[in-house]
Write a structure and sequence with these properties.
Layout (H helix, E strand, L loop, with lengths): L1 E3 L5 H12 L9 E3 L8 H9 L22 E4 L19 E4 L5 H4 L5 H21 L9 E4 L8 H7 L11 E4 L1
Parallel strand pairs: 1-2, 1-3, 3-4, 5-6
Helix pairs in contact: 1-4
Pfam family, one: LMWPc
Protein name: ArsC protein
Keywords: Arsenical resistance
Length: about 180
Amino acid sequence: MFLCNHNSCRSQMADGWLRALRGSASVGVASAGIVGGTAVKEGAITVMKDAGVDISAFTSDAMADFKPEHFDVVISCCGCGSKLDGEKEAWKKRAMFMDWNLDDPPAIDPGDLSAYKRVRDESKAKVQELLDTLQKPYGPHYKKNVMFLCNHNSCRSQMAAAWPTNPSDSCPKVGFRV
């Protein structure tokens, strides 16, 4: 989940990048605003289209329309994490919470879309980092990590690690390292 104050620019660009870059990886994505209901900024649509990613059909959704427990990773694109208190604090308690604190392009753009382009490129790099992290077989993106130790790591630990990674296994969100 990419969160932002209004879900009109930064979170929409990050959402678009994740959809474009995830390839065949099984990574779901949504974006929302603490306060939803504004339109996606034309500048964001334009610079993403220039990069080959179409977000023109994206809508500005409200965080209230989603449940935090449906997400393993929550990213505050604008520093809005400080506003997630009380009932909203559950969003910060997911397996992974990050605060990217990207600049707000409409607030600083001199009129040539340069701020939009910079934030677009920054969000692309951060999304690629996120995907790289999520593809690791163990790490902070898992709720639990298990290490199988053995003197030579040639037989028993390898067999033990193979069980939980079997596609028929129903052991979600556990990373293994041999």
